Amino acid sequence: MCRTGKEIGELKAVILAGGKGTRLAAHTQNIPKPMVKIGGRPILEHQVRLLKRYGIQDIILITGHLSPVIEEYFGDGRRFGVNITYFCETTPLGTTGGIKEIEQSLTDDFLVLYGDVILDMDLEKLVKFHQDKNSVCTLVLHPNDHPYDSDLVEIDIDCRVKAFHPKPHPRDTYYHNLVNAAVYIMSPVIIRYIEKGVSADFGRDLFPSLYGKERFYGYNSSEYIKDVGTPDRLESVTRDLVSGKIARLNNENARHAIFLDRDGVINKEIGHLHRASDFELLPGVTEAVKKINKTEYLAILVTNQPVVARNLCSIEELGDIHKKMETLLGLEEAKLDGIYICPHHPDKGFPEENTAYKICCSCRKPNTGMIESAMMDFNITTSGSYIIGDSWRDMECGHNAGLSTIFIRSGARNEGHNFEPDYSFDNLLEAVDFILKGSN
Ligand SMILES: [Zn+2]
What we know:
This protein has helices spanning 43-53, 67-74, 97-101, 123-132, 202-206, 231-243, 245-248, 285-293, 315-331, 369-378, 392-401, 428-439, and strands at 12-17, 37-38, 41-42, 58-63, 83-88, 110-114, 117-120, 137-142, 152-155, 161-165, 179-186, 216-220, 224-227, 257-260, 298-304, 338-342, 386-389, 404-408, 423-425. Helices cover 26% and strands 21% of the residues.
């Protein structure tokens, strides 16, 4: 149940289906882009079927110059078990204009999809997130493999949207790798911010005017959401549909993960690293992460960072270190699907400490709190998943959580601890090659 007391099925969906698809010219001479077929069905039909699967019945299609092609195919939606109505824009008004025109039909929270996007996601989980946060606007976000030329969205530790960083990104700046995936849930409150009759864009114009004013959240998803803007993409999306990958990545299906420790595995261990300028990726790391990204394993960072509790840096400065990590990985087209940190430390009584973080917590490895959070967020199954680390804490945490454990031989800090990893390698790349060889 949502805060308005409605079930997901009572949500309306609005699909922006007016795109011309000029870059797909060979496929779209007389048909609008959302009608391009993938696996024998128009993109739009894949979306309608997804909505229907989650019980969403009322769908409004905002169409453009080739509207009759769409209307003829879908009619009133009865054939697909849903109710479809249309709003045909005679003058295109960007992505937001049509929503303003149908304002009177949108009296409760609604879902927005773009008609040229192929997706399969757990909509119930998304709606629950939106409701739990009491959000008035929720954007689905994901890390992508080219953040350097993408519009980026920054969220805080509570997932609240903090900033937008439109491309191009100045050289020598670091950023988190989170990109607008073009799926939104909005409250009608948002429509007030749209000016009637003025061409505007959600990402470029509307969203930057919202943060700081409204309860505005980002939802990180690793599910399959891709636009089909170019012939190359059309080909790869078709391949993924045929192989079943698009459906498999829906959060309802359990996935495997490779959990990665940070210091000594991803970056050079220097002891209490607390300045971004000291962060340096180890050789072969981008290649290793990229190899994980090419499979269906999730790459998830789980790191103890007591530097915050010791007051060597703030949580924001720790974020800056991770911005550098994500940027360096992203420049080589590698990404982490999730980042989990424990900023705590149990030993109290030092004069310089940050007392708020000096606690006994369940997240500090060898405790399994970070693994458990990731399991919930990404629906990860531990059997068949791995942890790769360079300390006894990683190995014990992995063991406690039911993961296979891979030790990276380097750490002098492990002396005096007895632990038996399942496997040992010299570096991350060797470890990842070993896992992936076994999974083929
Ligand atoms: Zn902790």
